[in-house]
Inverse folding.
């Protein structure tokens, strides 16, 4: 599991861990039921405090992304397909919102933006079929 901590990031370290682990779960790199490194092992690998890692795991558990079994460890949560879908929808909405802001600053009309999106979808569909 590749997690990269950046001291120059504006985000606290526990948030960097949380967001990267969520990305790994959402992308399927971390599969349902897969065991995660122990809090101590991850802290050691990342050379950070155990408290920081514990906070990241607690946040992930509170959001339903992981489950912790006493004495066995933490695992990618199963059966939360709707939660994962909502998280993905939220991320797509954020990205589309950024695209809209960028289009507005470039004086691109809404119809042109919709045409661009349609062309990109069609182009991507053709690439997947090939």
């Amino acid at each position: 599991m590749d997690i990269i901590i950046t001291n120059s990031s504006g985000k606290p370290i526990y948030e960097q861990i949380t967001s990267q682990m969520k990305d790994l779960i959402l992308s399927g790199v971390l599969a349902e039921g897969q065991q995660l490194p122990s809090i101590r092992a991850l802290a050691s690998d990342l050379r950070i405090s155990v408290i920081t890692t514990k906070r990241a795991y607690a946040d992930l558990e509170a959001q339903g992304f992981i489950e912790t079994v006493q004495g066995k460890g933490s695992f990618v949560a199963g059966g939360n397909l709707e939660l994962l879908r909502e998280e993905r929808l939220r991320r797509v909405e954020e990205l589309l919102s950024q695209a809209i802001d960028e289009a507005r600053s470039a004086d691109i009309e809404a119809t042109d933006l919709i045409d661009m999106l349609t062309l990109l979808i069609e182009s991507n569909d053709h690439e997947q079929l090939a």
Notes: The radius of gyration is 19 Å. Residues 81-129 form one domain.
